[in-house]
Amino acid sequence: MPYKCCAYGCNNVDGVDKNIKLFRFPLNETTEKEWVNAIQRKDFKPSKYSRLCSAHFNPNDFVENPNRLVLKEGVVPSNFNYPATRIKKYTKKKITGNVYSPVLNEIVQNNSHPGYSTKLIFWCA
Ligand SMILES: [Zn+2]
Questions:
Q1: 90 Cα: distance to centroid of ligand 1 (angstroms)
Q2: CA–centroid distance, residue 79 to ligand 1 (Å)
Q3: Is the separation of the CB atoms in 13 and 3 below 8 Å?
Q4: How far apart are alpha carbons 119 and 107 in whole angstroms?
Q5: pLDDT < 50: residue spans in the chain
Q6: The THAP-type domain covers which part of the protein (predicted)?
Q7: 77 CB burial (10 A radius; 0-12, 13-18, 19+)
Q8: Ligand 1 centre from 113 Cα, in Å?
């Protein structure tokens, strides 16, 4: 199972785009809290499987290294997209992409009206 970025509205997965790298949450508790604050997801608690992708960091947050992306110590992610349009894009992608859940899949298959499906997925998400 590839890791998926935990940022809201971000669909980046590990190993698809070589320009995107997924990072584990920092072990330092203070920095970890800053990451969680930056992500702004309600009741979000990172687990050891939680990953955040490189798209949420600035270029100068990385150690200069030509072969791979390495984060500098103590940096906090800052590039996030919270607007509603972004959320809509995300939910629409869910319908055409991977199956969200067996129940939802059934609803999507039985009702091809896009507005209805989007609304349902949005409500479930
Ligand atoms: Zn991401």
A1: 12
A2: 9
A3: yes
A4: 11
A5: 84-125
A6: 1-80
A7: buried
A8: 29
